[in-house]
Specification:
587 residues, globular
């Protein structure tokens, strides 16, 4: 079969949520098509229906016994006796059966006789603890709770299957890749290894390096800086005009703004963010044809500002939309909605933005000056902070520094058997780990964009060598695994006596104190559901940690395979297309 992933296209998931013409262009989400046919190694019938796990709502308050149904999918067709457990940790999207069938992780599982499980992230998809997404309820959405979910799930899964000590490897992509890596660090006694694809583990509130990387890539593709120079000329002219409110309607009308006018200064900043977003998405997913097409418009000899307006018009036509509803009030209304609409889309926009505002950051700003980036000066950290305050009432910077201090950011400490994979053209790679050392294996894939390695390819292509390298590393870790309590023989050159392996001490988890009285009663199923695993099987180890004061306020299943097929792709796409403001990337 030829390369499966052959087409990149832009589409929206938001227009059905809000009946606002053009709101979908505010979120230019990229996806990749995969074949709906089962991969060659899955030639047997495989039941991958969604299952439910009774997950604890709050892992850090033993007096809170509330639970919610966390969804997961299992592919055990190649699982051998005492084989490994591969856990695909969900990010900010719905999970689907294709996550355990059609991804490269499924190929790794088949090659190692492993069971592959995809665990949906709390508050995303159908794994909803509450009936709405109020800010009071979202205080149970945090990195620490998500990590404890995965640890508790694996403990429960192993107990329900009477599984002994076997290799457990965490996998994830983009934000989910961060979680996979952090699971290995936070719960080394549970997770023996981890693979983080395009995992930006160095958290930062002001991610100005993103646009610097985008600019460098545009210049590299075009062979010169003419295109980015003309973009800058257009943006400078726009900013000069928009400095006078008398010109707002002229600019909004020229660039296809819905309604044709700005009503406040924040509109100009939000609108500019959306204009630069189309360049971000094309670079992130290595759509070089789009870059060349748009740069040809920018360098056709006409007025740069008119050319940029024509680029935006072309993008609107590609999106199938008549205008761009990228106004500040539209943003606040969209992210302010607390409704949960089953089947409305795979991306949890409000939830992921909450994580950005509280912990992750990843705000793609224009704080770097030209010529490092050509997109002006209006998209600042202050803009994002204003959005966080108006949507959630959060008036402080995300607590990125505390997570960096705990896990080490892109210089992880006291760890081993973690594999990082990154595309050389991915702007997010600057926040990841791209060199070996300290128990880390890093694979940098030439010519690849964000999360390109998680797609399963059949036949030779430019990514095969890197995927084979990663597959071999995973096999080595699986084969070298020594169950706890098993005596390891001494090496031939050592006089040391055999020793018994000792599980590492769990890392403490930091969460902020909260009042349960503020939150609604979580939704739990009272019906008997096949595949439900008890949250705390008798005798199993439950993740626990002290409650320490902190400044952190504390994917609906598709109905058909063709609808499900984009789930894994979007997990990387949305993960990090800056879900604030211009939000196109996730995770």
């Amino acid at each position: 079969m030829s390369r499966i992933v052959a087409l990149i296209f832009i589409f929206s998931l938001c227009s059905s949520v809000l009946a606002l013409n053009g709101i979908n262009n505010h979120h230019r989400i990229l996806s990749r098509h995969r074949s709906v046919r089962n991969p060659p190694h899955l030639n047997k019938r495989q039941d991958t229906n969604a299952l439910l796990f009774a997950q604890k709502l709050n892992h850090f308050d033993n007096s809170d016994t509330r639970t919610f149904n966390q969804r997961y999918f299992v592919n055990d067709i190649n699982w051998r006796t005492n084989g490994p457990i591969f856990l695909y940790v969900g990010g900010e999207i719905s999970m689907a059966s294709t996550d355990v069938i059609g991804t490269q992780f499924a190929k790794y599982a088949a090659d190692n006789g492993a069971v592959l499980i995809a665990l949906e992230h709390r508050f995303f998809g159908e794994s909803q603890p509450f009936s709405d997404l109020s800010t009071a309820n979202l205080r149970y959405l945090s990195v620490e709770q998500a990590l404890a979910d995965a640890a508790n799930f694996i403990t429960g899964f192993k107990a329900s299957k009477n599984i002994g000590d076997v290799p457990v490897i965490a996998f994830g992509a983009s934000y989910g890749g961060n979680l996979a890596v952090w699971l290995r660090q936070a719960y080394p006694e549970i997770f023996s290894s981890a693979l983080g694809s395009s995992a930006p583990v160095q958290l930062t509130a002001d991610f100005s390096e993103y646009l610097v990387s985008v600019t460098s890539s545009i210049n590299s593709i075009m062979g010169n800086s003419d295109c980015t120079s003309n973009i800058n000329q257009a943006v400078v002219a726009m900013e000069s005009l928009m400095a006078n409110s008398d010109n707002w309607s002229t600019v909004a009308s020229q660039f296809g703004g819905c309604g044709g006018y700005f009503s406040q200064e924040l509109d100009t900043r939000t609108f500019m963010g959306s204009l630069m977003e189309l360049w971000q998405t094309a670079i992130q997913y290595n759509d070089q044809n789009k870059i060349r097409n748009y740069c040809s418009i920018m360098t056709n000899g006409g007025d740069p500002m008119t050319n940029l307006a024509n680029v935006n018009k072309a993008e609107l036509e590609a999106d199938g939309t008549s205008c761009l509803n990228a106004f500040y009030s539209a943003f606040i209304d969209f992210y302010g909605s607390i409704s949960i609409t089953p089947g409305s889309g795979v991306v949890g926009y409000r939830q992921y933005f909450y994580l950005q505002c509280t912990q992750l950051g990843f705000f793609q700003t224009t704080s770097a000056a030209y010529p490092k980036q050509p997109f002006g000066t209006l998209v600042t950290s202050e803009l994002y902070r204003s959005e966080c305050k108006d949507v959630f009432g959060i008036d402080h910077d995300p607590a990125a520094a505390s997570l960096n201090a705990r896990f080490g950011g892109n210089k992880p400490q006291q760890t081993s058997q973690i594999l990082f994979s990154n595309g050389a053209l991915d702007p997010w790679s600057v926040l990841s780990v791209t060199s070996n050392g300290n128990g880390i294996v890093a694979v940098l894939i030439p010519g690849a964009g964000h999360c390109a390695d998680i797609y399963a390819y059949y036949g030779e292509n430019e990514f095969t060598s890197s995927q084979n390298q990663m597959g071999n590393q995973l096999k080595n870790w699986v084969s070298a695994f020594v169950p706890k309590g098993v005596v390891t023989p001494p090496t031939p050159t050592s006089d040391a006596t055999p020793t018994t392996s000792t599980p590492a001490t769990p890392t403490s988890v930091i969460v902020s104190p909260t009042s349960d009285a503020e939150a609604s009663v979580p939704l739990t199923s009272t019906s008997s559901t096949a595949g439900v695993i008890p949250s705390n099987p008798k005798g199993s180890k439950v993740p626990s940690a002290p409650v320490v004061p902190s400044n952190v306020p504390t994917q609906s299943p598709s109905t058909s395979v063709s609808e499900q097929q984009d789930s894994s792709a979007i997990s990387c796409g949305v993960s990090f297309l800056g879900v604030a403001l211009m939000i196109s990337i996730l995770i």
